[in-house]
């Protein structure tokens, strides 16, 4: 502002956010007469510094009557902008689960504590939308408008199995079943639920969704589900196939006849005398004389956390308290990528290469038909020989597409198995046969707290630091 400040005028400072101005009077030096300022003069000093809004007139009057020397005094305060609230969804169901068992005070694992899925009934409210609330402007002490950050509404929920209210704020289930939230998408799907055991009385179960059994499975029954399978009771002589995750909350007593195939991850209290193939990770209390193959990682929990007898393989590694026992029970453990899996990968790659080569020959044959037809002025498109080549080409291209997907999956598994190891947190007993990738060793002495890994010299053991 125009005009000069009077001598010994107090210093005006404005905060970095522009919301506060202070005034500091210089401490008298005892040599010069201490000047006095009227409230109007102090107001002019503030205006000279650009401070025009939120001025505390009462404070200026007090400072005029009784100046405060050597200390900054607030003389103006702006109005902060109020930030708005973006639109958000309030979900009325559990969206995240802890898939690991609770460890009891005595160290045992409580597998019944695991929550596996959330279910709803038709008509239940599953989500409520809270629209965005825009903020309000503020004003700095220098009279500058302070704009709040703009906030946005969210797009409507997508998915299946629910309705949206007329006011577009409330979502309700159309059907009873399992509800899940995945990447902002809600899906409610039917669930096949059995309130008891599955066996001769119920027959086999085949269902294109999730299956929940509030009992056990026995009598040679077969359960085949495209989704998750949750079984509260004991698993005995049966066959189970799950397209996704499998939860065996009371364990498996297989009697050497139970076969389990899991397309996702598997959680079981224990496994005895069973054959298991799992595409994901496995969590359990203990394994006893079972054959288990896992494309992910195996972690055993609780006081037992042991593998005794049988054959257990996990591409990404294994962690357990004990492997083997003091009786020297032969226990075979494998991690990483073995020669058999590598050979299968190479064989599939060669198969795809051979089919692709054949497809190129077929394409050349079709082009030859079309070329001869163009030269002779004849349309060979309906010629049976050309039609047969076209059918074979379509078939082989579909095979290549599917087999290439399978090859990519195999490649991902092989990469994930790099640097796999076996961690034994308590005791590794003599009698264990250990394989890491294509390296093997038989344990002849008992070892405490060791990690087993592959080195250029072969399988090595090193102490785990506690």
TrEMBL record:
Residues 11-182 form the Flagellar Assembly Protein A N-terminal region domain. It comes from the Bacteria. One of its GO terms (biological process) is cell morphogenesis. Signal peptide: none annotated. PANTHER family: POLYMERASE-RELATED, RNA-BINDING PROTEIN KHPB N-TERMINAL DOMAIN-CONTAINING PROTEIN. This is DUF342 domain-containing protein.
């Amino acid at each position: 502002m125009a005009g000069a400040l009077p001598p010994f005028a107090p210093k005006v400072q404005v905060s970095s956010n522009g919301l506060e101005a202070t005034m500091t009077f210089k401490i008298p030096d005892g040599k010069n007469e201490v000047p006095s300022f009227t409230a109007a003069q102090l107001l002019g000093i503030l205006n000279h510094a650009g401070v025009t809004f939120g001025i505390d007139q009462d404070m200026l009057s007090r400072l005029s009557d009784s100046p405060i020397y050597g200390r900054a005094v607030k003389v103006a305060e702006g109005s902060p902008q109020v930030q708005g609230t973006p639109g958000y969804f309030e979900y009325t169901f559990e969206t995240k689960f802890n898939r690991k068992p609770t460890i009891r005070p005595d160290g045992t694992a409580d597998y019944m504590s695991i929550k596996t899925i959330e279910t709803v009934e038709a008509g239940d409210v599953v989500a409520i939308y809270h629209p965005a609330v825009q903020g309000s402007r503020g004003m700095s002490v220098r009279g500058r408008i302070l704009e709040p950050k703009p906030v946005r509404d969210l797009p409507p929920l997508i998915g299946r199995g629910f309705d949206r209210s007329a006011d577009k704020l409330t979502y309700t289930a159309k059907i009873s079943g399992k509800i899940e939230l995945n990447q902002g998408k809600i899906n409610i799907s039917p669930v096949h639920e059995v309130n008891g055991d599955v066996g001769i009385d119920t027959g086999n179960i085949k269902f294109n969704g999730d299956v929940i059994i509030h009992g056990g499975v026995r009598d040679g029954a077969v359960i085949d589900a495209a989704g998750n399978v949750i079984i509260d009771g004991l698993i005995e002589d049966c066959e189970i196939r799950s397209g996704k995750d499998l939860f065996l909350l009371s364990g498996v007593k297989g009697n050497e006849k139970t076969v389990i195939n899991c397309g996702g991850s598997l959680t079981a209290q224990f496994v005895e005398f069973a054959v298991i193939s799992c595409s994901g990770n496995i969590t359990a209390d203990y394994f006893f004389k079972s054959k288990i193959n896992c494309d992910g990682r195996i972690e055993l929990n609780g006081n037992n956390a042991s593998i005794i007898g049988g054959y257990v393989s996990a591409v990404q590694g294994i962690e357990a308290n004990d492997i083997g026992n003091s009786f020297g029970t032969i226990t075979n453990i494998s991690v990483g990528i073995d020669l058999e899996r590598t050979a299968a990968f190479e064989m599939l790659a060669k198969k795809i290469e051979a089919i692709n080569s054949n497809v190129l020959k077929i394409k050349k044959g079709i082009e030859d038909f079309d070329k001869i037809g163009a030269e002779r002025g004849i349309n060979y498109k309906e010629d049976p020989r050309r039609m047969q080549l076209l059918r074979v080409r379509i078939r082989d291209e579909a095979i290549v597409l599917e087999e290439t997907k399978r090859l990519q999956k195999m490649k991902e598994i092989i990469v994930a198995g790099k640097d796999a190891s076996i961690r034994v947190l308590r005791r590794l007993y003599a009698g264990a046969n250990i394989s890491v990738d294509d390296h093997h060793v038989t344990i002849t002495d008992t070892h405490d707290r060791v990690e087993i890994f592959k080195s250029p010299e072969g399988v090595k053991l090193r102490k785990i630091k506690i």
